[in-house]
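Late entry, evening session. Most of the bench is empty. Finally got around to the prediction I had been postponing all week. Sequence below, unchanged from the version circulated by S.P.
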Amino acid sequence: MSGNGKICDEQTLGQLIPAGKADDFFEALYGDAGEGAYDFELVCRSEEAGRVELELLLHQRPGKCLACNLTYGLPQVLGRHPVLNLKGVVQRVCELAGADPAQATWSLGHTRVISSEVHAIPITIEMQG
């Protein structure tokens, strides 16, 4: 297994968490996608043999307040939420890297404030061949 750049490709990241996923998430959470305060964007921070570091960016929606919403306890919620399916994202990352998903471990870091309009949740994936 090597850091082959397949995962950090913008198109691949967009397939892992597509545009509109936040609408599905908020529809499931609140019963109304319009209640959501942010949109998701998956970005890659590093890709190397055995380790991928991603970030799930939360972009404030127009007219909404990202800081007013629960974002600090969010990693635990997002890690388990079936609509976002981060476990499935991790599995796909492992497959793209040529690693066995059953041997991988992953974790979500603490919410990091980039700006009042953007917060980030780190996702670290450790893989074995």
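Two things to note before I forget:
Strands lie at 38-48, 51-60, 105-108, 112-113, 118-126.
The chain has one domain: 10-65+75-126.
Will write this up properly tomorrow.
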